[in-house]
Input
Amino acid sequence: MSDCNGDCSSCSSKCSSEIQKSKLNELSKVDNVIAVVSGKGGVGKSLVSALLAVNFQRLGQRVGIMDADITGPSIPKMFGVSHLRSDTDGQHIYPVESKMGMQILSINNLLDNETDPVIWRGPVLAGAVTQFWTDAIWNNVGTMIIDMPPGTGDVPLTVFQQLPIKGVVVVTSPQDLVSMVVEKAVNMAKMMNIPVLGIVENMSYFKCPDCGKTYDIFGKSHIEEVAKKFGIENFARIPITPEIAKVADKGLIELYEGDWLDAFTEKLEK
Output
């Protein structure tokens, strides 16, 4: 540690496991934390985070979502809470609640205007996410979903090192390129000694509502071979579905209909 340059990506040391975890606020209770990650942007990581959260809620759990994608938050929009502002008392931050009781904490609920850009450097972004854990009051959360920013930068590194992550879910899409991108996310999790709980392939296919024929718009699915390559047993596929986009745009993601992640979520719960 004495000659550490702060660049964990080029380091073979296991010191990340020695870093003291950030302490959850004494007024909070969170049982399990799952991070949803991707090696690149645009694959639907926030959508998968939202659907997993809704599924856990439907299983009877109290669920919280930490939106750790500070520069590109989309969780409040999907849950219809963009207009709400998180209360603060100088010491604590209080997550907003969706219509169905989902606890949500996002930078967008702390800004005066949700379209204001967040122009911060990496360490400041990471510090804000840490405060979402240490300063927020999470009310008896059974499962917390953390919607991570894409890649392997400051925020994912901070979350992996300082929060008690039980495991990660990797989100991908069908393109050949994605195998390499998934490998980056999986390898980072391994370096941080965090298990990969499963892989979700988004935009996997499109099923024509008229003829019922299935089309691989973004190419043939590779999720089974990718999962096999990394020894990951739990995986799921989400099709291109206009209905999901509609409920997400209207802030009604809690009303979505579809069973693509049902078995996946039940395995995660167990």
